[in-house]
Amino acid sequence: MKLTSRLSLLCWLVTSVIASDGTNENDKEIDVELLHSQVPEPLTINNFDETLKEGFNMVEFFSPYCPHCVNLFPTWANFYLNNEKLTNDNKKYNIYQVDCVMSGDLCEREGIHYYPMIRFYGPDSRLLASMTDSVRTIDTLTEFADDQLLTWNEDFIETDDTSLKIQQVYSSNRLLDNSELMRIIEGENQVPYLITFWPTTFDQLNDKNFQNKVSQHVMFKHFESLFEFRSILNLTIKKMKKFIEDDNLRFGYFNCLSSKEICKELGLSNLITGSINDNTYPKAILYLPKDTGGNAIKFNANIGFHKGINLAAKSLSNWIESTLINSELRDMKFNEIKNFIGGTVKLEQKGRISEFTDYSKVAIIQVNDPTTKSYEDDIILEHLIQPIANLNNDVFLFKTTDNEIVERFLLQQEKNLANSYIHPGGKIDESIEDNELQFNEKMYISRTHTSYPYYICLKAGTLYTPVFQTYGSEDSRSVNKVVEFIKKNYLPAVTHLTLETEKTLFPNTFGKMFNDKNEKVIIALTDFQPKQFFDVEYFLSYVYHKFTFLNNHNLFNKLEEKRATKHEKVAKMKKKDASSDDIIDALREKIDINFSSIENNVHAAYIDIKNWKSIVKHMNWTNIKISDYGVGDVLIVERFGGRYWDHDVSGKKITIDNEEQCLKSLEAATFKNLKSKNLKDASFFTFLLYYGAALVLFLFGFRYYKQWSQSKKHYNEKMKGLGLLGLTPEFEESKFD
């Protein structure tokens, strides 16, 4: 056996004792010595660059003294062997290792800071990405490699000598000096500019070294977050290539450490401290020309949150594209907007869905009367671009003066929803006398009546469009009130719940102005097989629509009750000959019920069963037993409260096979008539902390009470026999003796 293999085997035997927790019987049967004989010798500084000169390569940097590396080795070896079984035509990348004990100089050159570090290299040993997923199985390793191939394969083209070269599209991103930046900030640019601000100096980052290999760039070598952001930016530039070629977008970058005052004025003080860590990422700002408002729109999303640079670049490029669209603010035909978003007045019944629905797009539309619109109505739209950009969803901003077409669209949606979609088979049950589940014109008017300009929230794949009700221009021109309406309604009707979207459905913070503690998310598990997924899609859509309609119907009933009480009060006042002023005041009393309310809101989501385990783990839902759930199962989860329901009132499991079962369970959960479960187990430490704090408060209170009692007793003893003024009374005879 080779010397390095023997050393690795010895280290494995030693460290396997240290890292033996969780090892099963199958792990103990692995012939590690055989596996070591089947993988190639680790690369060294002498052959690393030559070996990685061509094609794509996956490399693990490890230490034989690292328990995690030792435990990973059998998986890595089998990953390598699986790849070697492929023919040359099917093998897209090669797999290697580097022993950082034997080749410390190479690991130092490559900026390896921990073990194991898994990296993906392109031609000429060019580092393309590092694996950030802590779960390392053959599947996740393969997924990472395939993701990189999908990301970078188009960036390389074959030349006559069959070597691969990087396209020069990235050269469009150039360093900006102070005067250029100030001109762009002032809106003098004719084209939108995406500028990234870096915690670097001119010497550290410039056009000569921006695209250098990691080993040749001191900043990228030592700061993984900066290298990662460069990769994200490069991929974003590639995705926006068409915009660049048509000169509809330009890219630039700026060194904050060389111009600290400018960056400080821009609110980028964290980039001028000179301190860089793993969470330090450059900031991106999209500067719009004066003729499109001259706004500076900040990308405020956490770019480091995404799993892999491909998803991060997709997030940034989608944000750029949607913000550019939102900044146009031209008067559009409503049908053009509707077709872009995927708005509809009809949905298919159960068993008739044959195509996947893209629910992701949502539009905030300002609807105006062409005869009364004013310049002030456009100004508020410019102030809505940044709040919408902060949502980091596919939310678009439009305006239209097709007011009559919009009103016909809303009416048709409501009729089809109430008279068809929420009824099994698409027909109202005629046997039910006075069936309230049908179109009610009075309720529809109460929900949509408003004044111009008003806003609607048009969503893809739904028959329900929220309306921002306003009875005066002061409301429709209030940025805060419009933003509140947007934040209440911007979520799609149905969401694909992934690690990237979980913060949208389950945010860390509760906004009391636009969130309700009783909001719930219906989650269905799917395997994405067409028939099964179409059933999931119908189930979620049906439950979402019917519960929303019932919720609005409940609000309408409350409104009617308050109106009746108000009219009854006025009638009594008239009988008592109350003054006309008092009667008018009573009639003017506002009934505080708004159909934009988020009370009892419900959201719908589906999870790929393959990702179920990782999502539960990521969400820290420790009380959920993953193996108890399968394809077609349903959970009702509180968005903010930390509770969930998976059985109905009779104890049966909630599934997609019975929409009415879920609706009744949702109603029971909403009105506290169904027993819930906790999503998370309180840890023993939390238990001790909670009850320890209670004990401390009790002891403190008891001690205070004891001191107060003693003090009072002492005071009473002291005052015994004294008069009201604290003086000894003169016991003289009085006239009462």
From TrEMBL:
InterPro entries recorded: PDI, Thioredoxin-like_sf, Thioredoxin_CS, Thioredoxin_domain
CDD domains the UniProt entry points to: PDI_a_family (cd02961)
MF term (GO), any: protein disulfide isomerase activity
Record keywords, A-Z: Isomerase, Membrane, Signal, Transmembrane, Transmembrane helix
Domain (Thioredoxin): residue spans on this chain: 23-150
Signal peptide span: 1-19
Pfam families cross-referenced by the UniProt entry: Thioredoxin (PF00085)
Keyword Cell division: no
Membrane-crossing segments per the record: 684-705
GO cellular component annotations of the record: endoplasmic reticulum
Isomerase is among the record's keywords: yes
SUPFAM superfamilies: Thioredoxin-like
Single biological process term from Gene Ontology: protein folding
Entry similarity comment: Belongs to the protein disulfide isomerase family.
Protein name (record): Protein disulfide isomerase
Source organism (scientific name): Pichia kluyveri (Yeast)
